[in-house]
Amino acid sequence: MMKTKKRSSTTSKHLNVVVLGQVGVGKSAFTVRLKTRRFIWEYSKIEDSYNHCIEHDGENVSLTITDTSGLKSEKELEDYLGIGDLYIIMYSITDRSSFLESRRLGNFLRENNSGNFEMALVGNKTDLEHARQILESEGTSLSEELECKFYEISVAKNFFDVEFMMNDAVKGFTNQKSDCRSSKTSLLKVKENLARNKSFKSFKRRMSIS
To answer: Are 121 and 151 in contact (CB under 8 A)?
Structure first.
C-alpha cells in the first residue's frame, strides 16, 4: 500500500509529473490539495511547480509536479515532450469542451512523445453530479483509446480521491518503468529543460519547495 510521506533525504527515485487540461478543470486545486490537503477556490493562472514525496514498496518516490496553465497550442505543447514521466490529463465532468480538449492533449502526446512515459485520464468534479455532462463510460472509452488509466475524482470534496489517484498512477508507472529517472533530476532541471526551448517565450513560474 502506498501513502503520502514528507520529503526525505533517502529518496531513491524521482518522477516528473505534468498536469494538463483546459482552464477551470481543477489542475491547480489538484496539485495544491495533494501537497497540502487543503482545497482553495482561487488560483493564479500561471505555471507552478511543486515537490512532493510518496512511499512505494518501501522506497521514497520524489515527485516534481508541474501544474500547467490553460489551453496550449501544439507549438507550446512541444515544450513538454520528453519532460514528463507521467502526464495527468484532466477534464471536468461538467464541461464537454474540457473533455474534448483532454482527447486532443492525449492524442498529441501519443503521436509526438517518443520517450518513455505514462498517462492518466482524470475526470474531476464528481461532487457536481447534478451538472454532469460526461458519462463515466465516456471517460472509460477515451482512456482505452489513449491506452491509459482512468479515474473520476472530486478534488473539492475528497482528499483521499486525490491521494489514491496519484499513488495508483505512480505505482503503475514504477511497476512498468524500472529504469525511471534518477533522483538527481530536480525542479531546477525541469525549469532548465523548459527554458531551453526558444518557443517557450511566455513561460512563468514561481517555485514552492517543501
So the answer is: yes
Please report the domains of the chain, with CATH numbers, ordered by start residue. Answer: 3-208 (3.40.50.300)
The terminus-to-terminus CA distance of the chain in angstroms comes to: 23
Beta bridge partners of 61: 13, 54
Give the whole-angstrom CA distance, residue 200 versus residue 83. Answer: 13
Query: Is 151 in contact with 178 (CB distance < 8 Å)?
Result: no
Q: What is the mean pLDDT of residues 32-57?
A: 71
Q: Which neighbouring-strand residues pair with 124?
A: 92
Considering the entire predicted model, what is its pTM?
0.75
Extract the C-alpha cell encoding 80.
Answer: 513538454
- List, in sequence order, every residue forming a beta bridge with 149; answer none if it has no partner: 120
CA distance 173 to 2: 13
